[in-house]
Amino acid sequence: MAVKINIESLGCRLNQSEIQSVITVLKNRGHVITQREDADIFIVNSCKVTLHSERKTRKLIYRAERASKKNARIIVTGCCADKPERQGNILFIPNDYKHLIPDIIDEIIDVTDLIKFPPSRFSLPAPTAGTTTRINLKIQDGCDNFCSYCIIPFTRGSAQSKAMDVVLNEFNDLLDAGYREIVLTGVMIGNYRHENADLADLVSSLLEIPGEFRLHLASISPAYVTERLIDVLDHDRMVRHLNLSLQSGSDKILERMNRGYTSSDYYRLVDKIKKKDRDFNLTTDVIVGFPGEGDDDFAETMSLIRHAAFSHIHTFRFSPRPGTAAFESDDNVSEETKKERSIKVIELYLKQKENYYMKFDGRESILLSERSYNSRTRGFNEYYVPVEMDRALDRNKFIRIKTHAEPGASRLRGSPL
Question: Which of 81, 262, 317, 348 could anchor a disulfide with 92, C-beta 3.0 to 4.6 Å?
Fold first, then answer.
């Protein structure tokens, strides 16, 4: 019997990819995905990467409890679901059993029986019935790096990669389903390994597939960006964007974080990428106020930010996570200083974003139309820069346009050629 299912999802692209695959299975079985609060089942796809994300997860669970019918079921999955269990009308289903959610909803199996099934990271199908235009394809899971601040190796487990032939087949499935921009995602996609193939090999093979599409890489650690991968990024089917995770520009702090690279490594990598394409769009992640971060360390981070000219920075104030090495640190930075440094990072990257967007003033670009409303169309160009046009165009189409930039604007303006 078909049921109405309300799904709220938090966290990374990997988490989003997995829940879109779950949605695909549920839709194929005739169930209805809804945003209404009269749903029969509520699914919270949780995130645990920060204390803030855990609080958001709890709020979503509370909201589902308040909104749900008397007999409605609530399923919590994602990284906050540590083990399969039932607490009242709430079912907790860990990531490695996420593929069994449709069977639990259809009452084929019970949550208490999950331990009878082997955990699996790659049993979900490609998200061919997902709800977005740009779709995330999972190619990898887990991490063995154990950065001193990070809880993910404990929630996602050791690194594993999806078989290359499976990735190729799923990529084709997504193209057949009409997707035009496919984002490769995982916890550490740079660590992709299958037999003798690495990420550059996988990307090269995907680019040989016929069809009209763009290929986009998700966030990647600089420790895994090879010369071959930089060469592949120059392909005309690649989105000219990387979220090249930085965290800090101080060698002292990078070592404390156990990041596996130095600031000099990062400078060299930025220069190599920009040498191929001086307008290549780099974004990044920065943690401010890590234990032991002094004024000089923060100044080194700001210098690297200026050199790389990031167009966007995901800025996080350090928050200690129980179970991580950094949790025991006693040379903590005050919350006031964290706030001040966070503001400085944001102010700097907003200026850099404006400067970067101005590079596209009067230039031709290729827009992928993603959303049309009120006689307007929004999408992104090949550099992953947002564009808006003052006319309604068909969704999910590549359109050659001319872009215009206005100082302080959050997106480019576009007109078709």
Answer: 81
Res. 76: pLDDT tops 90: yes
CA 153/CA 187 separation, integer angstroms:
9
CA 213 from chain centre, in angstroms, equals 19
Q: What is the pTM of this model?
A: 0.94
Q: Which of 27, 11, 1, 29 is nearest to 177 (CA)?
A: 27
CA distance 225 to 362: 32
Number of other residues whose CB lies within 10 A of the CB of residue 129: 16
Q: Is residue 205 within 8 Å of residue 179, measured between CB atoms?
A: no
CB contact set of 280 (below 8 Å; sequence gap of 6+): 233, 240, 241, 242, 273, 274, 383
CA distances from 208 to 196, 202, 304 (A): 18, 10, 36
Tens digits of residue pLDDT in 250-292: 999 999 999 999 999 999 999 999 999 999 999 999 999 999 9
The counts of H helices and E strands in the chain are: 11, 21
360's CB contacts (< 8 A; 6+ apart) are 381, 383, 385, 403, 405, 412
C-alpha dihedral sign at 154, 221, 204, 281: positive
In contact, 290 and 147? CB cutoff 8 Å: no
**What is the sign of the dihedral through the CA atoms of 255, 258, 261 and 266?**
negative
Q: What's the rounded Cα separation, in Å, for the pair 106 and 31?
A: 10
| 3-state SS class at 411 | coil
pLDDT digits (tens, 9 = 90+) for 104-135: 999 989 888 888 899 999 999 999 987 677 89
| Cα–Cα distance measured from residue 304 to residue 299, given in angstroms and rounded to the nearest whole number | 9
pLDDT tens, position by position, 391-407: 988 889 999 999 999 99
Length of the chain: 417
pLDDT surpassing 90 at residue 349 = yes
Nearest in space to 13 (alpha carbons), one of 177, 323, 243, 281: 243
CA distance 78 to 10: 9
Distance (Å, whole) CA 176 – CA 4: 27
Q: What is the pLDDT of residue 68?
A: 66
Compute the distance between CA of residue 27 and CA of residue 21 in angstroms, rounded to an integer.
10
Query: What's the pLDDT band for 294 if we cut at 50, 70, 90?
Result: very high
Alpha helices in 258-334 (DSSP H): 263-276, 295-308
